[in-house]
Amino acid sequence: DIVRGKDLFLGNTYESKQREKLEDNLKTIFGKIHSGLTDSGAKTHYQDNDKKNFFQLREDWWTVNRATVWKALTCEAKTDDKYFRNTCNGGSPTKGDCRCKDDQVPTYFDYVPQYLRW
């Protein structure tokens, strides 16, 4: 949700300031990705408003990279470590390293609207 710019949590004053800083950093990062696009069609497709949030670019980046992000998050997981819920292939447990078969991400909750996950 944070990468895609859809996180609803505002937190306390300190948390809000940290969130603003994070959001500014993400705008900078995705602005650099956008400026590095060489295909003019892609540059036009991902053109953004004056706020430079690049929401569609962020959404597509997440779609392409979510499995790699999960691998990075679980790189220290041990063979016997399990994901907290059986979610592989509709209800099977993770097989090791908190990963499903073929390193598939064990959940698609990141695509469920955040207010429905609470």
UniProtKB/TrEMBL annotation:
Pfam families to which the protein is assigned, alphabetical: Duffy_binding
Gene3D superfamilies: Duffy-antigen binding domain
GO cellular-component term (any): membrane
Lineage: superkingdom: Eukaryota
Start and end residues of each Duffy-antigen binding domain: 1-117
GO MF annotations, alphabetized: host cell surface receptor binding
Record-given protein name: Erythrocyte membrane protein 1
Organism: Plasmodium falciparum
